[in-house]
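INFO  loader      accepted 1 record
INFO  loader      residues=450
INFO  predictor   begin
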Amino acid sequence: MEWEASAVLFFRKALEARGIRTPEDILPLYREAAARLALENAEPASKTVEGWFYDGRRPQRAFRPVIVEMLGFSIDDLWTEVPEGTTPTFSPLTGASPTALHADAGVDLNEMKRTGAVAVQRAKEFLLGKDRETVGDDTLGLLDDEVGRLVAAYPRDPLSTIWDDLLETQEQVFRLLEGGRVRQLSHLRDLNVKAAVLSFLVAKGFNDMESPHQAMTMTRVAASCARTAEHPGLIALTDGLKSLIAYWADKPEDAYHYASQGAATAAGLRGTVGLWLLGLQARAAAVLGDEETVRVVNQDAADRRERVVLDDLDRLGGLFTYAPEKQLYYAVESEALLGHGDAQLAAEAERAVQGFSDPGSPNWAFGDLAGSQCDLALIRLFSGDLDGTAAAIRPVLDLPNSHRNNGIVVSAQRVRQALMSGPARTAVVARDLRTEIEAFPASRPALPRG
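INFO  predictor   done
INFO  writer      dumping tokens
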């Protein structure tokens, strides 16, 4: 958002009325409001706050309830320009506002939620330690709930909002496995499956933070747990994650090797893990310039899609299923990496972006949306559509820092590299776009707090 020098956002006015004149002063007030809402994990990065304060950038949905609680006005009112020297007439939210509700007894509902959340955490700790001799069904059910929540949240939320919970839940599972309290073999297998799933997510987190060594180490932990659980799908998935880590670390030979290894393990499986490994193979082959392998592997994946029978990993969802939208995105990306671009491929790329256009879809993922938008930008560029390239990558460049993980940064930089060659390189639009992508904060990916 841009506004006249003679106007200012009401957001700034409301902050100044509370004596807040710098972004640094906002976070303490924000934390107090988040605590009242029992939303301790919904904290923005300092750069995000600076974007609100200096650039007038409208906040992401996750942060809006806290801002409303903090300042007492609606987001629409707060992000309205008001002329300098005037007194706005916006009405504070009262009574019916979700952030101003009170229980009949006069106790603040937000405080009740906060104290209730503390009680729930204490109860979880009680349940996890209750059976000193054995691990019971209640403990496993609790962990099922936590694992399911984290798996669902990972593709949708900034890493910083789930990282602490992810590490804590992984530690709880490890403690149970190390404590010698598991008596039933079925419970032991279940815990090892959970340890593999959680370690997979932690490894993916390290990859998103551009820490490939730690990511690969944690992937090996996940693979060990998957082998102990004798779960071929998870074993294949860990090979896929090794391929993914190598792919984003610009090691296409390693990426192809791990994907091929995992594809062999998954050859007899009916779920979508085998299709994901084929997609990883195709992308790695494309980086290596092997067009024939890309064509054969993508065709194989398309044929196998018709015979898929969803398994336990697909039912888990998140990163553990390979939806048709994602398969299209991977296929388009392999063509973009080969430097292809024509009207038909551009239409496919637009369809891939459309597949991730609805945040309410169960398969939506902000990383996949950004990746497909970068692929569309590349294909439009290779088709000679420079303005279309700029339009395609615009939503990526507008992402807040909390969402700029390693894969998104690398994808954006590929577009910048492509803009440096070909007939478009001297165009004003291309030069401006290269400059803007270069400023995309590659050194500040989606890091958790601290």
